[in-house]
Amino acid sequence: xxxxxxxxxxxxxxxxxxxxxxxxxxxxxxxxxxxxxxxxxxxxxxxxxxxxxxxxxxxxxxxxxxxxxxxxxxxxxxxxxxxxxxxxxxxxxxxxxxxxxxxxxxxxxxxxxxxxxxxxxxxxxxxxxxxxxxxxxxxxxxxxxxxxxxxxxxxxxxxxxxxxxxxxxxx
Length: 171
Fold this sequence. Notes:
Elements: E1 2-7, H1 12-18, E2 22-25, H2 33-44, E3 51-55, H3 58-63, E4 68-71, H4 79-84, E5 88-93, H5 96-104, E6 109-112, H6 127-136, E7 140-144, H7 150-158, E8 163-166
Parallel strand pairs: 1-2, 1-8, 2-3, 3-4, 4-5, 5-6, 6-7, 7-8
């Protein structure tokens, strides 16, 4: 099962400690996002097997040679643009319909959330809903939301998700 680290303050040591296969630089508050994004992409390059993603801005991701872009659930119209410039695309989804729409539009992966309770993210979907989604879709799904311990990861793995994405697990 793949690990996807979402971080606003990446460190080389954090990434080496947990060895995720995917890492997203997502910082909604910094004034210097482009500069820090460039540092993030460069930091990821020497870590074998790690794919670097930037948040929302597919043009910046392409310019900085990130592997891909993670689009929000309001950016379905940018999927094809990101694919045309050669990026891998992850998009955030919150319903089965969004996952199936993303699949039709050719994204590489989706995050589906929230699976477990997480602050300010609404009612959790739960493992049974995740299982139901996985039975009707063919896309690679990262379970996201409230994932903080090994027991939750085990449940996601047993559901046969492609992987899990988290912020707090990797802190």
